[in-house]
Amino acid sequence: MSTEEENQTVFDVAAASMLTKELRDVFASGKTRSYEWRISQLKSMIKMCEEHEEDIADALHQDLSKPKLESIVYEITMLKNSCALAIKELKRWMMPEKAKTSLLTFPSSAEIVSEPLGAVLIISAWNYPFLLSLDPLVGAISAGNTMVLKPSELSPATSTLLAKLLPEYLDVSSIKVVEGAVSETSALLEQKWDKIFYTGNGRVGRIVMAAAAKHLTPVVLELGGKSPVVVDSGIDLQACISPDYIITTKDYADKLVDSLKKELETFYGENPLESKDISRIVSSNHFSRLTKLLDDDKVSGKIVYGGERDEANLKIAPTILLDVPRDSLIMKEEIFGPLLPILIVSKIEDSWDVINSGTKPLAAYLFTNNKKLKEQFVMSVSAGGVTINDIAMHLAIHTLPFGGVGESGTGSYHGIFSFDAFSHKKAVLYRSFMGDAALRYPPYTLGKIRLMKALMTSNLWTILRALLGLS
Amino acid sequence: MRSLCVEPFQNFSVVDTGARRTLTYCSPWKTNHKHEAVLFPPPSRPIRKTLCICLSSSSKLPVMMEEEKKTFDANETALLVKELNESFRTGKTKSYEWRVSQLKSIEKMVVEREKDIYEALYKDLSKPEFEAFVSEIAMVKSSCKEALKELKHWMKPEKAKTSMETYPSSAEIVSEPLGAVLVISTWNYPFALSVKPVIGAITAGNATVLKPSEIAPATSSLLSKLFEEYLDRSAVRVVEGDVPQTTALLEQKWDKNIFTQVLNFNTPNIVHLSLHTRYNCGRSPRVGRIIMTAAAKHLTPVVLELGGKCPAVIDSDVDLQVTARRIIGGKWQVNNGQACISVDYIITTKDFAPKLIDALRKGIEECFGTDPMESKDISRIVSSNHFSRLQSLMDEYKVYNKIVVGGQRNQKELKIAPTIFLDVPGDSQLMQEEIFGPLLPIITVENVKDSIDLINSKPKPLAAYLFTNNDKLKNYFVQSVSSGGMAINDTVLHVTVSSLPFGGVGESGMGSYHGKFSFDAFSHKKAVLYRSFSGDSSVRYPPYTPEKQKLIKAVMNGGIFNIILALMGWSRD
């Protein structure tokens, strides 16, 4: 506790500037560039996960009452998988990529070299406070950068744990943790970084990008957005966890609601507020935001399931709202909680327009057995990612980039995309001293112009004619 | 506010302070330095919300004034953007056929109007036809050709491997257009740097607005005319103009009052290729920063193609004649040094410098004759403003006596001869700012390896060049020098290789384009996972029993034993 207080009083712009200077010096020494350093850090991270699984799960429980299985599956194991993949693939990722060269530059060879950017800043979010902090770190380490992690202050237990564990396991000279809230974040944002990776909401995303603009720092913004689920009729209803809202047809809506009710009962029992398997709302602020959404006049009569809340324990039961109007509060902002509104359209294709009339979501889901609908959905709905017939599983696949578009963010990560997000792709052309034609240089005679034109349009016949002086 | 833009003011600037935006002007009788001081009183403080665009070009401005009478303002821009968004919504720009038809039209435009393009380029920059062909016409043509050849392949969704956890499933990465995009280009290659990004935007299926540079007015108005004639007006547009126009364009996604507009303009990708404006304000606020700040308000991703001081390191074991020629090629042959990837300064060893200078002198004479001021094969300086900027670089007391080659100038014709300086001090203006003209300082070091520290002590350049026969030095250079791109034993040529991404890093920009990279720059890579309804394991869902925890942990950790367990999970219960 005392160290935290100390941090909070000491960490200002001057401290932040000292910190970046230190990181730049370390980066300049070249140590983070070596393959060995990167591997050793990744291995340490796996070790950290293994040795402190309990502590991590505890911290997550403290912050969010997160059930242990959820913590293990969605946070710890996914992180370990990320590290393992990076360890396995790093040599290949680091290898320069050969590029084809053209007749124009003959004889030559070309390659694209991935180089680290320098000092990067990672600001993470509270909903998966462990994974969303360390998964970007895996990318920054694999790419050979030095870095600062600023975990979310809204999940204080995890933040404190990260500040304790990272220096224990990782190279403290090149990987730093700065705890804190707005003032610490602002102090960090004042500095010049070589990349800023932010996970959170669009409002702060704008602030981060504007701060980055001052130093021409590129950003990755992982934001949210209302992720829709479109449910076609006649599908096997089993798998729905936490989408933002559902769109379905009129005749199918009742069936869907019944099925959801049944599922929720088997998941959480008769009284969901008592269930251990449901996370609580992160803070009283968020709790009151959610109740405001529920109490909106336009939707208060639309609750068909749930609606119970327990302010003292910050719990809200899974709640379904049927046929909410599109201009209601709940349809205007990202819900980020256990409320599930259902929109009704007359035919399923109408949902494309409903989705496209809003801002682009991070993810869009479609449940259908109809192949044509699938194709249409993929082609016409713009979203960060799309999953057909499941929820959120696309983020478990490391061969797919994970990231938003438009309001849901910019840039992506996971697997090799994380490595790329923290690398600069340097184009390198190698030439020898041979093959230098006088053609390239002034004085420009008519013949030279002709030959060059022929060469650059690669028309063999014209080249010959120009060489023979015929054209 | 725009009424301020009347003839007496030769320089004016937009000072943006977030919500409060004002146009001020910079008095022409003040030097650039004073002017900078006027705008930024405490130079030590970081520039926060006050940003400035200063544009000027004495002789050209009156022309622009006439143009401005058309007053392309925020309302008009709003309409334009709305129109483009509507076209985009119809889905027509997404079709393969539309993209191909537009690309073919660009090809046709270049073939049919080649002469007009040369003419405009000559008017703006006295660009020799050979240069115009190689670096503008041919570049655009080959971009079109490649895009036409590869487009089907680029548009095809890319299959991605799926893992055990999501079995049975298939995954792919779908490239989709972003929406309405804005391309702001610059004056040094006013044709190629305008059309090439537009080609990228079209191949990716976007609706596009191009804002060419007002500093190359002939090319700007030609582009506006040609686009109207050859391309689909409903989805590809040119907006000509000056600072107010650019501001109006940026305002578009910036003004919160027109909320639907903001929504509709979903993800404009701004490609910015501007270098020119920075000089008038010294080294501080680049337009790139302004663009990015404006873009931040709408979370719009940007590609910024900027510049930087591109070094060339010359080892002593090189083929001297070839090296000298290739430096000449990468300096005076690219728009007389007015190119973002032209050689800005040379670093070589003390002993080798005299030999190199001799070779360069000889090479310059071979290329441009005994009096380079008379040569038709070299471009002029773009404007009198840039001319006087270059002049003040030459006349600085720290460097004026270091000239070893050239030095002639003609203010009336805006010509400066190829000029080489030897051993200029590091704190001279010449070594502090991007030269962007025919001046070439040579810095000498004891050991060629020292050059790497010197380069790394400066902001990351757009390109770095090394001439050597030493493989070890080559590797070391590639590993330790950070720059947008590199050419070893040549200059500039890496730009012509379309399989290489072209773009900067750090101060030289972000994002890249050329070839497939252009397509990618204007596309969103949408991750798509297809699942069937079989293979849904109840393990994933609450209530979470200890058995479930064990099983799911095992599955996620992989391994054959775990797969057996997983299979048990899939046998539905």
UniProtKB/TrEMBL annotation, chain A:
<dbReference type="InterPro" id="IPR015590">
    <property type="entry name" value="Aldehyde_DH_dom"/>
</dbReference>
<dbReference type="Pfam" id="PF00171">
    <property type="entry name" value="Aldedh"/>
</dbReference>
<dbReference type="InterPro" id="IPR029510">
    <property type="entry name" value="Ald_DH_CS_GLU"/>
</dbReference>
<dbReference type="InterPro" id="IPR016163">
    <property type="entry name" value="Ald_DH_C"/>
</dbReference>
<dbReference type="InterPro" id="IPR016161">
    <property type="entry name" value="Ald_DH/histidinol_DH"/>
</dbReference>
<feature type="domain" description="Aldehyde dehydrogenase">
    <location>
        <begin position="27"/>
        <end position="428"/>
    </location>
</feature>
<feature type="active site">
    <location>
        <position position="222"/>
    </location>
</feature>
<keyword id="KW-0560">Oxidoreductase</keyword>
<feature type="active site">
    <location>
        <position position="240"/>
    </location>
</feature>
<comment type="similarity">
    <text>Belongs to the aldehyde dehydrogenase family.</text>
</comment>
<dbReference type="GO" id="GO:0004029">
    <property type="term" value="F:aldehyde dehydrogenase (NAD+) activity"/>
</dbReference>
<protein>
    <recommendedName>
        <fullName>Aldehyde dehydrogenase</fullName>
    </recommendedName>
</protein>
<dbReference type="GO" id="GO:0009414">
    <property type="term" value="P:response to water deprivation"/>
</dbReference>
<keyword id="KW-0520">NAD</keyword>
<dbReference type="GO" id="GO:0006081">
    <property type="term" value="P:aldehyde metabolic process"/>
</dbReference>
<dbReference type="InterPro" id="IPR016162">
    <property type="entry name" value="Ald_DH_N"/>
</dbReference>
<dbReference type="GO" id="GO:0009737">
    <property type="term" value="P:response to abscisic acid"/>
</dbReference>
<dbReference type="InterPro" id="IPR012394">
    <property type="entry name" value="Aldehyde_DH_NAD(P)"/>
</dbReference>
<dbReference type="GO" id="GO:0005737">
    <property type="term" value="C:cytoplasm"/>
</dbReference>
From TrEMBL, chain B:
<feature type="domain" description="Aldehyde dehydrogenase">
    <location>
        <begin position="284"/>
        <end position="528"/>
    </location>
</feature>
<dbReference type="GO" id="GO:0009414">
    <property type="term" value="P:response to water deprivation"/>
</dbReference>
<dbReference type="GO" id="GO:0006081">
    <property type="term" value="P:aldehyde metabolic process"/>
</dbReference>
<dbReference type="GO" id="GO:0009737">
    <property type="term" value="P:response to abscisic acid"/>
</dbReference>
<dbReference type="Pfam" id="PF00171">
    <property type="entry name" value="Aldedh"/>
</dbReference>
<dbReference type="GO" id="GO:0005737">
    <property type="term" value="C:cytoplasm"/>
</dbReference>
<dbReference type="GO" id="GO:0004029">
    <property type="term" value="F:aldehyde dehydrogenase (NAD+) activity"/>
</dbReference>
<dbReference type="InterPro" id="IPR012394">
    <property type="entry name" value="Aldehyde_DH_NAD(P)"/>
</dbReference>
<dbReference type="InterPro" id="IPR016161">
    <property type="entry name" value="Ald_DH/histidinol_DH"/>
</dbReference>
<comment type="similarity">
    <text>Belongs to the aldehyde dehydrogenase family.</text>
</comment>
<feature type="domain" description="Aldehyde dehydrogenase">
    <location>
        <begin position="75"/>
        <end position="250"/>
    </location>
</feature>
<dbReference type="InterPro" id="IPR016162">
    <property type="entry name" value="Ald_DH_N"/>
</dbReference>
<dbReference type="InterPro" id="IPR015590">
    <property type="entry name" value="Aldehyde_DH_dom"/>
</dbReference>
<keyword id="KW-0520">NAD</keyword>
<protein>
    <recommendedName>
        <fullName>aldehyde dehydrogenase (NAD(+))</fullName>
        <ecNumber>1.2.1.3</ecNumber>
    </recommendedName>
</protein>
<dbReference type="InterPro" id="IPR016163">
    <property type="entry name" value="Ald_DH_C"/>
</dbReference>
<keyword id="KW-0560">Oxidoreductase</keyword>
